[in-house]
Amino acid sequence: MEENPFKAHLYLFLLFLFAFSAAAYSIGVNYGTVADNLPPPSQVATFLKTRTTIDRVKIFDANPDILRAFAGTGIAVTVTVGNGDVPPLAKLPAAQSWVANNILPFHPKTIIHLIAVGNEIVATSDKSLIAHLFPAMKALHTALKLANVTDVQVSTPHSLGILAPNSEPPSSGRFRRGFDRVVFAPMLEFHRQTKTPFLINPYPFFGFSPETLNYALFKQNGGVFDNVTGLNYTNMFDAQMDAVFSAMKSLGYDDVDIVVAETGWPSVGDPNQLGVSLENAVSYNGNLVKHVSSGKGTPLMPNRTFETYIFSLFNENLKPTISERNYGLFKPDLAPVYDVGILRNDQALGPTADVAQGPTAVDPRKKWCVPRADASDEALQKNIDYACSRGVDCKLIQSGGACFDPNTVRSHAAYAMNAYYQAFGPQDYNCDFGHTGVVTFTDPSYEACEYSIQGVKLEKSVAGISNVKMCTLAEIFLGVACFIMSIHLV
Prior knowledge:
The structure is a single chain. By secondary structure, this protein is an alpha/beta fold. Helix content is 33%, strand content 11%. The protein contains 12 helices and 13 strands. The protein has helices at 5-24, 41-51, 64-69, 92-102, 127-146, 180-194, 213-216, 236-250, 278-293, 377-389, 409-423, 473-488; strands spanning 27-31, 56-59, 76-81, 112-117, 153-155, 157-159, 198-201, 224-226, 231-233, 258-263, 308-310, 368-371, 437-440. The strands form 3 sheets. Strands 5-4-3-2-1-11-10-7-6 form a 9-stranded parallel beta sheet. Helix 1 (5-24) packs antiparallel against helix 12 (473-488), helix 4 (92-102) crosses helix 5 (127-146) and helix 10 packs parallel to helix 11 (409-423). The radius of gyration is 25 Å and the shape is globular. The two termini are 14 Å apart. Mean pLDDT is 84; it is low at 7-25, 346-364 and 455-490. It catalyses: Hydrolysis of (1->3)-beta-D-glucosidic linkages in (1->3)-beta-D-glucans.
């Protein structure tokens, strides 16, 4: 049978679009828990899934409550082996036990994307930790294989302290002498063979001076010229990334992927602390998100999109210094400290000072009904059945409906409970549902799924321009391509 060239080209086109779409969502967040006022993990997982575009998180342990909370969300989780737990894992039986206790009970229902073995160990100068790091990585990789887990990667995050002092300009980047051949060459060979990424924690915040603040913040500046390559750097992030790339290339491993495991900027610091302000945090993190998602790459790594984890999700009140307590994108009540373009459904807010007092002003006429954080799926399924049996239009949470995804009991219950609440009131007792519902002043609508308020239609109009959300270029092309394929691929 003769090959249809139209089919072949269209398949290639679709593959490109899927790759493009995946690259566009490369922003993750570090979910630290050094605080005594954070919301429960289940609430965090629901918030990230329904209210943000974050599709991956990195945690600093293997907290079972967090891993359970992210089950079924589609959000990928990177778990961490604590530094003190690394030495015993250099032996396979201990590594197998760790995998059995921390991975197998949760994966694949919870998507565990990667195991980070320790954090910035090489820069600690602890000879015992450094000596056991790579053997532990290999043992964990073997333990995963023996358990038939093939989709969990193994790596370890590095600070820029792994670079030699003379790693400027970026083309001269080298690993510290004595570590290059002994530590990093075999480690990079492991990454090449296992197709896993090299994790780095670039922090321009720790590298700027008064003269280079704009350079660190992605603001207008004259740039830094690399006279070896003839390239001009307009931001410090690219320079730090390329210095690491140059170090890898000097050992022959420029083909290994790089992932940004941590980077960020505090929004509040000690009085007169240089460079720390809400404005600067917005500038760094906001421009970072645009930059790493653009596909432009860096001068030495053009046309690359880097998986990047911002530090951090929350302001953590038990950290030792003021600036360390204020790296968060969100406050513990889930209100944004500022927005960097990750909020869904036009929920973006302008920067809000961390010292703001009192609750946010709300319109008391606009109330919605949503499930309580501690409500069980069994109870919520009963709420769905009850609401839909009382004449509430539940078509939107059926397959193909605007509110079908995410396809979870909690998400469907939120829609059905609110629809009932709006239809039969809205008095607060119509949101009780056996103590499983709660009234909120925060609109739970997302993407094309718009929740009603009293007197407002449940479904979005597709006729009014003001109600149409703009699609990404990839979504438009994908829709057109799928339509063409449905006509021609017969």
